[in-house]
């Protein structure tokens, strides 16, 4: 009597397992509904179609994306598991903590997006430029928020603080939402994030962390113009566990390129102010390694790593 | 002049169909131990991509509100909250069911849920922009004060031994520390295990502690444990029974509305705070924990009031307060609506449709509750070992699904064994969950407050009038118990159980 339900449960698992065998699993290291997940879910149909296979998204959330990235690194390199990973777990977290993987644990399929970030303040504040905040930070103190330690908002502000010699207090929040609430309430002075955050909240941009002004925001000066040559962006890309067949890697890379060229993906990118940027396997690998190096130096400077 | 064109969208067949499906699904998902709001929404999110905007939001809102209510069904019938939000419902719901009043308990929780939900819709419609602006005045110090106030409710839910209750609360706070330091990003209490850097998942722990340990005790002592309540029917409370309870309903709903409007706090916190304050205020406070409808009203109206008011920061400021609202916002993005401060001005039709949908969802919830409760009652009349095996399977599936990690199943089993032993030792489990739910908020806000005030915690009460008021209230609550015990007893307030 007691064994019947157990046998049934086992049988269902088995049937489910067989049905899943030929589908490609795409690990997204954050929960459903997050920024990375939203883009991944629009990327997936185009990728699946170009590949001619079913692709299923699996959200493996936790520890700033490192649990999901570790799951992608640990999977078998048979092409049935890929990871859709953003900058954090790929190029920041491995320097910040002991992750079981590092940049060498992956084969790089393609980069999909790259979105520059802005220096933001509450709309209608009395400061009007980067210079104002630098003066204020050198004389007194400035408080900046982030969506957690070791995120791009944190790194970009930490880099600016040390470049300009600011007396800055860093307040980490559990995500952009609570941080924007704190900015609306006046608890934090500055925040760094993408155009989406700029557009959706009562904030204004003081500068963009990019070498040149953006076409969409011609009035926003660059950090370089303010005297600090800082370049930060958030990006995402598709990776596979190390050791994938070169032919499979090439076909996945082609499918990825096709996916980001679909109307659907371009539409979402436009709506969410995400910059589309394709880099092939070799370029992407080189970019990640360079980016990780830069972030490691900032984390060291900010006293977060040795 | 209000343009009522949005009503066409809100009452289209597709929307109504989505509401009925979503709400029913939500109630069932909420009632199954292990599957909660987030899992339900993640399951439904991909389906919304092919739907129109308003029906897809209706589906998600139905699942959300339904699941917050649904958790109370299993809390009452099998002493396991279907979702963490319903942990407080169990405190009085299950004792009522044990007395043979399962139908009445379900009736109270259903009525309180629906009324709490409707009241929060009214607050949302009338005062969203004002409340959203007020909520932004809660900085780190103010939220810390609020969490401290909430922690005093551990005393209210410690049945039997106060020392055991406080010990469990402290243990819950400690378990919340496992994972990653929120300020430095360093791993702590992880013993080099990478999985632990993510911290323990609340849902996995709650499932283990309540659902699995309940199943273990019943399987261990087949006839020694409490009887399962079979064939329960939902019996709505009569109007006369509400006498003396309306104030409780209003206060609890108001607490739910306020807490829901603060980004990142949530329904479980609201239910516990409301339960504690109801216990302070109720004339029947000594009956709390023994099956008092006031306790059910407090917990269920507050957690369902959060569903409406969680939309306040989301719709008025575009700030998602939690994972649930983040999923709703992402569904909007996919449909070409940019959430944000201008949502109400640029997409008023969608916002108005959301208001109407929320109201309809709460009414539909009342209707679908009857057949679903009936079905659960029928299921519970099959032999208990089979039900318990089912509870175990669902619990494990639920625990694993939340973060997509099989190790969360192991965590649930370990906490199931711990919960079983703690129950046998007479330790109350609710304080542990309170500590665990509030722990991360407590720590993050405390540490941000310390960073802002250069390490001076004594400066906290002077940060703002809001902080001063909440800290004073907390001090009064903590000192009231001992003071009552020391002073000569003035009249009826004799039972200073603290």
Return residue spans of chain B where pLDDT drops below 50 for at least 5 consecutive residues.
491-498
| Fraction of residues in H or I helices of chain A | 40-55%
> How large a portion of the residues of chain A is in β-strands, by DSSP E?
15-25%
Tally of distinct domains of chain B: 1
**What is the C-level CATH assignment of the largest domain in chain A?**
Alpha Beta
Structural class of chain B: mainly alpha
> Total helix count of chain B?
21
Morphology of chain A: globular
Keywords (chain A): Receptor, Signal
Protein name (chain A): Tripartite-type tricarboxylate transporter, receptor component TctC
InterPro entries (chain A): BUG, Bug_dom1
Family (chain A): Belongs to the UPF0065 (bug) family.
Descriptive keywords:
A: 306 residues, D-Maltodextrin-Binding Protein, domain 2, 6-stranded mixed sheet, 11 helices, 11 strands, 21% strand, globular, B: 498 residues, mainly alpha, 1% strand
Task: Tell me what the structure shows.
The complex is a heterodimer of chains A (306) and B (498). Chain A contains 11 helices and 11 strands. Chain A is α/β, with parallel strands linked by helices and 306 residues long. In chain A, α4 (87-96) crosses α11 and α6 (152-164) crosses α11 (281-301). Chain A is globular, with a radius of gyration of 21 Å. Chain B has 498 residues and is mostly helical. Chain B has one domain (6-484). Chain B has helices at 6-10, 13-31, 37-48, 53-78, 87-98, 102-135, 140-151, 153-157, 162-175, 202-220, 246-261, 267-281, 293-309, 311-317, 323-334, 343-346, 348-379, 384-403, 407-424, 430-452, 465-486, and strands spanning 179-180, 187-188. In chain B, strands 1-2 form a two-stranded antiparallel sheet. Chains A and B meet through α1, α2, α3, β7 and α7 of A and α3, β1, α15, α18 and α20 of B.
Question: What's the gist of this structure?
Answer:
Chain A: Keywords: Receptor, Signal. The complex is a heterodimer of chains A (about 300) and B (about 500). Chain A has about 300 residues and is α/β, with parallel strands linked by helices.
């Amino acid at each position: 009597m007691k064994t019947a339900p157990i046998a049934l449960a086992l049988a269902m698992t088995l049937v489910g397992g067989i049905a899943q065998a030929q589908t490609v699993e795409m690990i997204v290291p954050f929960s459903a509904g997050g920024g990375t997940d939203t883009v991944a879910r629009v990327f997936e149909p185009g990728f699946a179609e170009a590949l001619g296979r079913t692709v299923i998204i699996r959200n493996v959330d936790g520890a700033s994306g490192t649990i999901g990235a570790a799951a992608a690194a640990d999977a078998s390199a048979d092409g049935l598991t890929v990871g859709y990973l953003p900058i954090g777990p790929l190029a920041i977290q491995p320097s910040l903590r002991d992750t079981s993987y590092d940049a060498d644990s992956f084969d790089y399929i393609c980069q999909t997006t790259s979105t520059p970030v802005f220096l933001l303040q509450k709309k209608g504040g009395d400061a009007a430029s980067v210079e104002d905040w630098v003066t204020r930070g050198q004389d007194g103190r400035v408080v900046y928020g982030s969506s957690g330690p070791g995120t791009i908002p944190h790194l970009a502000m930490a880099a600016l603080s040390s470049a300009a010699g600011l007396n800055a207090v860093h307040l980490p929040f559990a995500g952009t939402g609570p941080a924007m609430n704190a900015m609306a309430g006046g608890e934090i002075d500055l925040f760094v994030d993408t155009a989406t955050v700029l557009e959706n909240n009562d904030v204004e941009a003081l500068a963009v962390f990019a070498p040149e002004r953006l076409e969409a925001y011609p009035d926003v000066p660059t950090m370089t113009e303010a005297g600090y040559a800082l370049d930060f962006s958030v990006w995402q890309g598709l990776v596979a566990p190390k050791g994938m067949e070169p032919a499979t890697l090439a076909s996945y890379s082609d499918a990825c390129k096709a996916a980001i060229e679909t109307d659907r993906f371009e539409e979402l990118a436009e709506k969410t102010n995400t910059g589309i940027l394709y880099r092939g396997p070799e370029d992407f690998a080189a970019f990640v390694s360079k980016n990780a190096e830069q972030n490691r130096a900032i984390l060291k400077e900010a006293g977060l790593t040795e | 002049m209000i343009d009522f064109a949005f009503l066409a969208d809100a009452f289209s067949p597709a929307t109504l169909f989505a509401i009925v499906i979503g709400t029913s699904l939500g109630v069932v998902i909420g009632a199954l131990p292990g599957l909660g709001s987030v899992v339900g929404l993640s399951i439904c999110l991909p389906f919304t991509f092919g739907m129109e905007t308003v029906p897809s939001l209706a589906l998600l809102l139905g699942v959300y509100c339904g699941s917050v209510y649904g958790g109370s069904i299993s809390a009452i019938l099998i002493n396991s909250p279907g979702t963490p939000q319903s942990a407080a419902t169990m405190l009085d719901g299950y004792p009522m069911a044990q007395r043979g009043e399962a139908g009445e308990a379900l009736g109270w929780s259903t009525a309180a849920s629906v009324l709490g939900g409707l009241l929060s819709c009214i607050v949302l419609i009338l005062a969203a922009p004002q409340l959203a602006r007020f909520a932004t005045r809660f900085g780190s110090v103010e939220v810390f004060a609020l969490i401290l106030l909430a922690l005093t409710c551990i005393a209210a839910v410690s049945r039997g031994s106060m020392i055991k209750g406080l010990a469990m609360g402290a243990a819950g706070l400690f378990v919340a520390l496992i994972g990653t330091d929120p300020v430095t990003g360093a791993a702590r209490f992880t013993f080099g295990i990478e999985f632990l850097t993510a911290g323990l998942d609340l849902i996995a722990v709650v499932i283990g502690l309540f659902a699995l340990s309940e199943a273990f005790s019943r399987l261990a002592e087949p006839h020694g444990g409490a009887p399962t309540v079979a064939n329960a029917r939902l019996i709505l409370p009569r109007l006369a029974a509400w006498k003396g309870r309306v104030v409780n309903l209003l206060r609890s709903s108001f607490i739910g509305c306020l807490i829901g409007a603060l980004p990142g706090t949530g329904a479980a916190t609201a239910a516990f705070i409301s339960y504690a304050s109801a216990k302070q205020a109720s004339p029947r406070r000594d009956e709390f924990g023994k099956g008092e409808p006031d306790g059910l009203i407090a917990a269920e109206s507050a957690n369902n009031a959060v569903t409406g008011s969680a939309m306040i920061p989301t719709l008025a400021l575009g700030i998602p307060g939690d994972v649930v609202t983040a999923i709703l916002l992402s569904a909007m993005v996919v449909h070409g609506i940019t959430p944000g401060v201008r949502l109400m001005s640029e997409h008023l039709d969608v916002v108005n449709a959301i208001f109407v949908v929320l109201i309809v969802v709460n009414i539909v919830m009342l209707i679908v509750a009857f057949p679903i409760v009936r079905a659960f009652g029928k299921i519970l009349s099959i032999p208990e070992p089979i039900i318990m095996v089912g509870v175990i399977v669902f619990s494990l599936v639920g625990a694993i699904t939340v973060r997509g990690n099989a190790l969360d199943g192991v965590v649930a089993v370990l906490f199931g064994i711990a919960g079983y032993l703690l129950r046998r030792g007479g330790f109350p489990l609710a304080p542990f969950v309170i500590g665990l739910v509030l722990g991360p908020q407590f720590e993050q806000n405390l540490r941000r407050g310390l960073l802002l005030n250069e390490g001076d915690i004594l400066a906290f009460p002077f940060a703002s009038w809001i902080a001063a008021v909440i800290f004073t209230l907390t001090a009064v609550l903590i000192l009231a118990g001992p003071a009552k015990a020391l002073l000569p007893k003035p009249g009826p307030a004799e039972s200073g159980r603290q």
